[in-house]
Specification:
Distance between the termini: 9 Å
Number of strands: 20
Structural class: alpha+beta
Oligomer: single chain
Shape: globular
Radius of gyration: 22 Å
């Protein structure tokens, strides 16, 4: 019987493992860290569960939501209609109406835009819909906005925050086609597709940990703190070396980050083209800034954006997770904030929060989690490797693999499910 090794216990790897285990395929997951979740994992600090990356889901993330409901049923997710709040300058709330009226009415009611700006936004969306959100040739997001006459104000309050939130790449170099793909399946789909979906628990507890329990109930194994140091193709499959132990598997799903995956690919002739493709990637950071205040600190919405400064978004963790006085702030992509020490960055985030909320007590503590290679740079015309590789029975899963979407949890989950389904088709 086939026995599949899944290398990496993040969202992609656990999605592959759940799909295989659910169909009776023996599977072993190897995760180098003690904590499951990869770049979307829990970080415990001062008896508080923090997330490495303040990820949100969308209603359009069908595979992720399906997986969560499969392994972790219960009230762990908060669905709210799209609400786009940028400090005191802009507020858009989708109406509780069928698409596309939900967005149309939301734009007409939006605070912070004049009539000309509303009309320019609607013309832009109408033109994208007429083109089926497809470009003849990819370009940058900024050049796309130039083409459709989007003002600096609209860029600042709407399009640039959307681009950075979705692609984690500065709009000047970000792929407009991938950006349009994200808009197509969220803002241009059903009303529910544009919903914001917040986790009420940390990201490891939301999916990877219950996924591991599911795999183990089906007879599979999840080996934490077991770093794989070699994957060697052989006549009988693949020999996987971990912590000095060697085991043979019929199939391998390599579900680690791209720069880690390339360490396994380099030297395998059949995978040289994919290794070269990954070697051309550049990367973007995500900084999560956590501030623990001594009392309740309430944001105007569960998620609030910032039009200036370093912070892009702040999250009210008491409202979302019951963590009193805890604010999570995220800074996406590259920028001047990378030059600051973590203490200085925490202090700057506190000052920016006070610009929104007024005077605040000094935080009891701050914690910065810097993921320097959080995502690949989703640049114009970037080639991404397929899940099915030229090496028989060797698969790649991860948010960097071929997809219409940028590096998101949904892309990761879809890639893992795709790998598993390819394996199942061989049975």
């Amino acid at each position: 019987m086939n026995h599949v090794a899944v290398i990496g216990g993040g969202y992609a790897g656990m999605a592959a493992a759940v799909t295989l285990a659910g169909r009776g395929v023996p599977v072993t997951v190897f995760e180098a860290a003690k904590q499951l979740g990869g770049r979307a994992r829990r970080v415990d600090y001062r008896d508080t569960a923090l997330d490495n990356g303040l990820h949100i889901l969308l209603g359009a993330y069908r595979e992720t939501l399906r997986m969560v409901h499969l392994v972790n049923p219960g009230p762990h997710l908060l669905h709210t209609p799209l609400e786009w709040c940028i400090q005191r300058e802009f507020h858009l709330a989708a109406a509780r109406l069928p698409a596309p009226l939900h967005l149309l009415i939301g734009l007409l009611r939006a605070r912070g835009l004049d009539a000309a700006e509303r009309l320019a936004t609607l013309r832009f969306l109408r033109a994208l819909r007429a083109s089926r959100f497809a470009l003849a040739h990819d370009t940058s997001v900024e050049l796309l906005l130039d083409r459709y006459g989007q003002s600096e104000k609209l860029r600042c309050l709407l399009w640039r925050p959307l681009c950075v939130a979705a692609l984690n790449t500065p709009p000047a170099i970000a792929s407009a086609q991938v950006f349009l793909n994200a808009l197509r399946d969220s803002l241009n789909a059903s009303r529910a597709a544009s919903d914001l979906v917040f986790s009420r628990v940390d990201l490891s507890a939301l999916f990877p940990e219950p996924a591991a329990a599911y795999v183990e109930r089906q007879g599979g194994a999840v080996r934490r703190a077991r770093r794989v140091t070699a994957i060697d193709p052989g006549d009988d499959g693949f020999v996987v070396t971990s912590e000095g132990e060697r085991a043979t598997f019929s199939h391998v799903v390599c579900a680690v980050s791209p720069h880690q995956a390339n360490a396994f690919l380099i030297g395998i002739t059949a995978l040289s083209e994919i290794a070269d493709m990954i070697a051309r990637f550049s990367y973007q950071p995500i900084h999560s800034v956590w501030l623990q205040y001594p009392g309740r600190v309430a944001l105007p919405a569960p998620m609030v954006g910032f039009a200036s400064g370093f912070i892009h978004w702040a999250f009210d963790r008491e409202r979302l997770c019951g963590q009193r006085g805890l604010i999570g702030a995220v800074i996406s992509a590259e920028g001047a904030h990378e030059d600051l020490a973590h203490d200085a960055l925490g202090a700057q985030a506190h000052r920016e929060l006070m610009q929104l909320l007024g005077k605040l007590p000094e935080p009891l503590w701050t914690r910065v989690i810097a993921e320097k290679r959080a995502t690949f740079s989703c640049t114009v015309g970037l080639r991404r490797p397929p899940q099915v590789t030229p090496l028989t029975n060797f698969y790649l899963a991860g948010d960097y693999t071929a997809s219409d979407y940028p590096a998101t949890l949904e892309t990761a989950v879809r890639s893992g499910v795709a790998c598993a389904r390819h394996i199942l088709q061989q049975r």
